[in-house]
Amino acid sequence: MQLDDHRSAVHLSDAATAPEAGGVYVLWRDARPVYVGRTAEGQSLRHALEWHLDKSDAEADPATHFTCEPCADPAAREAEARLLSAKFRLSGGTRS
User: Fold this and answer.
1) Which of 8, 50, 53, 54 is the most buried (most CB within 10 A)?
2) Structural domains of the chain ordered from first start
């Protein structure tokens, strides 16, 4: 799965298929990136994406899809998330 390409995105309702590993992810609303995230130490991509899925019920315009990439190194996760946030012109940890 390519993080920065919405064409490889999976529907957020399939969050349970995400890896049980730490990593970086992008939430998409249709073909537009709306959030770049990274897992905390000890958190899995699956857990993080399922959390977003649970929150999406309360949002007026929720994310619809995700891309993700496992990454074991916390510093590398942080760097990748910052690069993607800059590429998509998103504030780190905020939605557009």
Assistant:
1) 53
2) 6-88 (3.40.1440.10)
